[in-house]
C-alpha cells in the first residue's frame, strides 16, 4: 500500500512504497562474501531523518487526476497529479531524468487545468472502414467525412461522453458524439444520400457511433497555474475523466 507523505514545514513530498525497503544488490569485491553483497536501503528512513521534528501529514491522491504531456509508454517524463490533506489540495509533479533513477516528487503551489483545444474525427479510418463495409463510391465517402468533420467542429466538449477506449496519450481522449449531434448527422445524411446508400450510411453510423472509427478524439492542453497567477485564461476541467488505468499514482 502506497503512502503519500508531506512535510508541512518544508513542503516536501515522499511516496512510500513497499519497494523503499527492498535491499539493493551490488557486486562484491570480497570473494568471501559471495558474488553479491546486500546494501540496506531505506529511503523512507532518510526522509524521516531529514525532516526530524517537522509535522508530517498523509495526503490522499485524488482519483483520476493523473496527467502528463507525454505518451503513457514513455518511461522518462514529467507527470502531475493532485492530492489532498482533506482541507487543501496540492499539485504534485512526478519526474525523473533517467530511467535508472527513482521518481522524484515535488509539491507545486497551484492548480492543474485542462483546456480542450479541439475535437478531431478519425477521417482516414472512417474512409477505409466505409469502403470496406459498404463499398460506397469514393466521392460519397469523402462527402460523409466532410459532413462529419463539420458536425464535429460544432460539438461542445462538455456534451460529449468519454468512452473506455484508450488513446496512447493522456491529453487525447476518445469520446462518442452526443444524441443531438447524432440526430443532426443523420438528418444531414438524409439530404446527401438516397435510397440504399442512406440505409448503408445509417447502418454504418449505428454500428460505429459508440466504438471504433466514429469516435471523436478530444485534444487537451495542460496548464499549471501557479498560486497568485491569474486563471482567467484557463477553463476549468469539467471534462474529461481519465481512464481507469490512470487512477492514483502509477507505478
Ligand atoms: Zn521538513
Beta-strand content bin: 25-35%
Low-confidence stretches: 231-240, 242-251
User: Would you list the SSEs in sequence order as H and E?
Assistant: EEEEHEEEEEEHHEEHHE
Query: Radius of gyration, rounded?
Result: 25 Å
Tell me about the largest β-sheet: 7 strands, antiparallel
Helix content: 25-40%
Shape: elongated
Q: Cα distance, first to last residue?
A: 12 Å
Hetero groups in this structure are: zinc ion
Q: How many helical elements?
A: 5
Task: Provide keyphrases for this structure.
single chain; 251 residues; alpha+beta; 7-stranded antiparallel sheet; 4-stranded antiparallel sheet; 13 strands; disordered C terminus; binds zinc ion
Question: Short summary of the structure?
Answer:
This protein is an alpha+beta fold. The protein has helices at residues 43-50, 123-134, 138-153, 179-192, 195-208, and strands at 3-7, 12-16, 24-27, 36-39, 56-61, 67-68, 79-84, 89-95, 104-108, 110-120, 161-162, 172-176, 216-226.
Amino acid at each position: 500500500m502506497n503512502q503519500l507523505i508531506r512535510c508541512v514545514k518544508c513542503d516536501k513530498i515522499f511516496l512510500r512504497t513497499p519497494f523503499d525497503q527492498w535491499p539493493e544488490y551490488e557486486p562484491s569485491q570480497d570473494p568471501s562474501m559471495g558474488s553479491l553483497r546486500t546494501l540496506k536501503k531505506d529511503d523512507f528512513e532518510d526522509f524521516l531523518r531529514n525532516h526530524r521534528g517537522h509535522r508530517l501529514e498523509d495526503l490522499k491522491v485524488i482519483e483520476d487526476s493523473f496527467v502528463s504531456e507525454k505518451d503513457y509508454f514513455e518511461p522518462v517524463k514529467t507527470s502531475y497529479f493532485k492530492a489532498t490533506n482533506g482541507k487543501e489540495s496540492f499539485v504534485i509533479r512526478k519526474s525523473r531524468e533517467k530511467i535508472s533513477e527513482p521518481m522524484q516528487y515535488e509539491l507545486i503551489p497551484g492548480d492543474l487545468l485542462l483546456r480542450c483545444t479541439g475535437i478531431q474525427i478519425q477521417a482516414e479510418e472512417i474512409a477505409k472502414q466505409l469502403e470496406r463495409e459498404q463499398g460506397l463510391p469514393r466521392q460519397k465517402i469523402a462527402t460523409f467525412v466532410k459532413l462529419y468533420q463539420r458536425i464535429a467542429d460544432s460539438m461542445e466538449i462538455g456534451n460529449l461522453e468519454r468512452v473506455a477506449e484508450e488513446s496512447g496519450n493522456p491529453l487525447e481522449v476518445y469520446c462518442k458524439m452526443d444524441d443531438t449531434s447524432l440526430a443532426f448527422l443523420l438528418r444531414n445524411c438524409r439530404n446527401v444520400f438516397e435510397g440504399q446508400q442512406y440505409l448503408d450510411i445509417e447502418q454504418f453510423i449505428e454500428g460505429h457511433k459508440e466504438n471504433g472509427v466514429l469516435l471523436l478524439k478530444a485534444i487537451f492542453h495542460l496548464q499549471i497555474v501557479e498560486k497568485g497567477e491569474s486563471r482567467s485564461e484557463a477553463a476549468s476541467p469539467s471534462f474529461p475523466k481519465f481512464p481507469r488505468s490512470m487512477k492514483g499514482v502509477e507505478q
